[in-house]
Amino acid sequence: MVMEFFIEWGYLGLFLASFLAATILPLSSEILLSAMIATQFELFPCLAIATIGNWLGGMSSYGLGWLGKWELLEKYFRIKREKIEKTKEKIDRWGSLIALFCWLPFLGDPLAVGLGFFRTSVFKVSLWMFIGKLGRYLIWAWITYLGVSLIG
To answer: What is the 3-state secondary structure (H, E, C) of the chain?
Structure first.
């Protein structure tokens, strides 16, 4: 029923679903993308809209991380500063390239928040995150076309 709502809204629905899917909300923008491609929506606008929506959602998670403070993590989440510093070492080792994997389910949101929290270059993060999200949607669209051609 939720997906039907987004499909009825067309490209705007795809943008909203893609944006929200990049947050902690359990939405599958890939399924919506497949449904829209299978129901004759244009491929390139679908890819562009889903990618931009999901990228902006991921960057909002990055922004939330940027607003975070060490003291809040220690106080409210009871995370020791040593653990935070170990995590920072890992993020520093890989740097902005980690953003390439912000599309991953369950891991993508914490990665984006962590990159923001540790003040990783916003330009590099946004670039790698965009590439990762675009790549995921390109592969998903290709799989959808294969599936549609086998059924139809």
So the answer is: CHHHHHHHCHHHHHHHHHHHHCCCCCCCHHHHHHHHHHCCCCHHHHHHHHHHHHHHHHHHHHHHHHHCCHHHHHHHCCCCHHHHHHHHHHHHHHHHHHHHHCCCCCCHHHHHHHHHHCCCCHHHHHHHHHHHHHHHHHHHHHHHHHHHHHHC
Q: Give the pLDDT score at 66.
A: 93
Given this model, what pLDDT does residue 5 score? 86
What lies within 8 Å, CB to CB, of 14 at 6+ separation is: 6, 29, 32, 33, 36, 46, 49, 50, 53
CB–CB of 81/74 below 8 Å? yes
pLDDT at position 77, please?
67
pLDDT for residue 70: 75
Q: How far apart are CA 13 and CA 29, in angstroms?
A: 10
Q: How many domains are contained in the chain?
A: 1
Structural domain containing residue 129: 2-151
Which residues of the chain carry a pLDDT beneath 50?
A: none
